[in-house]
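User: For documentation purposes, I need each entry recorded in a consistent format: the amino acid sequence on its own, followed directly by the corresponding C-alpha cells. There are two entries in this batch. Please keep commentary to a minimum and don't merge the entries.

Assistant: Recorded as requested. Entry 1:
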Amino acid sequence: MRTRSHRARGVLAVVAAAVLGVAGCDAVGGDSAAPSERPAPSAKPTPRWDRSPSSVAAVGDSITRAFDACDVLSDCPEASWATGTSPEVDSLAVRLLGRSGAARRSWNHAVTGARMADLPGQLARAVRHEPQLVTVLIGANDACRATPSAMTPVSAFRADFEDALRSLRKALPRTQVFVASVPDLKRLWSAGRSSAMARQVWQLGVCPSMLGDAQALDASATQRRDRVQQRVEDYNKVLEEVCARDERCRFDGGAVYDYRFGTAQLSRWDYFHPSVNGQARLAEIAYRTVTADKPLT
C-alpha cells in the first residue's frame, strides 16, 4: 500500500522523528486366522492439508514487504509477517520452519504497491522455488486509489485471482495456498483520525479514497468511505469463494479484516502500514490458520 508523492518523502522524514495405533501383534493359534488370511490394512489417505509445510514463498504488496515497519519509506522484509527473521515478529516461516529453516527455505516475492493484477507475475516467480506453501495478502491497493471510481472492479479482481491460482496449479498442483483477507481500511481511518500526526501524513496521499479529508463527517465523505469499505468486503468475498474451490487453499475466514487493531499496530511514520507489532499479529493469524485442524470459518 504505497501511495506517495515526491513531497511525501520530505514530510515523512520530518514526522519520523516524532513518531504489527496402533498395530497389534496377536499370537496365532486355535481357530485364529493365519496372518496371510487376514485382509491387508487400508493405506492411510494422504491428508489434503499439511499443517507443517517445509518451505514458504510469500506474494503480495507492501504489507508483506513490511514497508515503513522499521524505517521511513523503506521495505523491511526482515520484519515481514510471512517470511521475516525478526524475533519481535516471529514470522509464519519461522514458526513453521525454525529460524535457520526459514532463512534457507522461505522467499518473499511481494512488491510494494502491487495490486491483484500483479499477482500472476509474482506467483510465476515464486513457483521457481517449488514451495510447499504460498502466502497471499493483496488487495488493499486495489481499493486505495485516488477516488472510489478508480478502484479495481470486482470482476477484474476475481479474474486476476482466478488466473493466478490457475497458473499456480498448473505448475505446482500440490502446493498449498494461504490467503489472508484484505484489512479493514475503515477501521484504520477510525483508529487514526483522532491523531493530528496521522491526518497530516494522510494528506500527502495515503489511501485517499478512504483517508482523504479524514475529519470530514458530512454525507459525501461518509458515502465515499462506505463505497471503499463495501469494495474491500467484495474483494474478501472473492478471495473466499475462489479459494474455497481449491482443496489446497485456505482463506483466513476474514481474520485479518476482523482484527481490531489500534495505533500500536500501525507504522509511526505513515499510520497505515503495520508496525512491527502489527506484523507480529498478522503472523499469529496466519500460523493459526495454517496449522488448524480444519479451515477457519
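Entry 2:
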Amino acid sequence: MTSSDLVQRRETPAAAPAAPRPPRPSSKKSRLSPLARRRRWLGLAFAAPALLFYGFVVLVPILQSVNYSLYSWDGVSAARWVGLSNYVSFFTDPALIESLGHVLVLVVFFSLIPIALGLISAALLGRGKTAGSGVYRWLLFLPQVLTSVVVAVIWKRIYGPDGPLNSALHAVGLGDLAKNWLGDFTWALPALGVIGTWTAMGLCMVLFVAGVAAIPGELYEQARIDGAGPIREFFSITLPSLKGQVAVALTLTVTGALRAFDLIWVTTQGGPGSSTTTPALLLYRKAFLNPDVGMAAAIGIIIAIVCLMVALVITRLSEEKNA
C-alpha cells in the first residue's frame, strides 16, 4: 500500500457501541412476593364459598329462566321450542301492554313523589333542631319497619267502604266523595300509588337527611352572607350536594315500582278487572294460576333487564354530573 493511497483513503469511523436494551418490566405476578401470593390465594379461598353460593342461588336460576323462556311449557307436559316468540308476545299482548302503563303510573307515586317529599323534609329537618322532628322522622320511617303485607292489610282496611277514610269524609260533610276506593276502576290504581308514596317516603327522607347532615355548615353561612334565602340555599347547596343520595333513592324506588307485586296482590289482586295489574302480577298468574312457564320466565327476564338498565342509566348520569 503506497503513501498516496493512505492519504486518499478515508478513515472509517468506528461503530458506536450499541445502547443497552432497557430491561423488560417484570409482570405484576412476578413482582409479588411468595407471602403476597399466599395471601391472594387465601382471600380467594375465603370468598369461594360465598361466590359458589351466589352462583347456585342467583346465576343458575337466571340461566334456567332464560332457557325456559324459549319454550312453551305448562310445567307438566312436554315443552315445545318457540324461540323468541314469548318475548315478542310480551310487547304485543294487550294485557301486558296495559300493565306497562300501570307501572308508569306507579313510578310517579312510588318514586317521583316520595323523592320530592323527602327532599322537602330533609330541607326542613336536616339543618338545626326542630320541635317534634324526632317523632316526625319516626312516623315517616315506620313503613320501612313493617312488612309490605302488613302495610297492605292496614291500608286495605283504611280504604274499605266502612273504613276510616270514608268515615272521615262523612264526618266533615263530604260523604258524596266516599267510595270503595280499591274497588273503583278509576281510583284503585291511584289509591295503591298513595300507599307506595307513604311506604317509600320514609326511606327517601332518611337518605336525604343523612346527606344534608354531611354538608359543611360554612356553605350555608356563606350563602346567607351573600343574601341567599332558604329557597336559594336549597337549589344552590342542598340539592347539588344530594346527587348521590338522589341517585340511590331513584334506583331503589323505580325498581321497586317495576317489581311491585305483594302490595297489589294483597289489596286488589290486580282488580277491579285489570285496572291494577302489573307485569310482576301477570308473571305470578302465568307461572302458578294459568301455567305458562315459558311466558312467565320471559316476563321475569324482561323485568330483570329493565331494572338493570334503569340502575345503570341512573348511575351513569349521576357519575357524569359529579365529574
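Summary note for entry 2:
Residues 145 and 175 are 34 Å apart (CA to CA).
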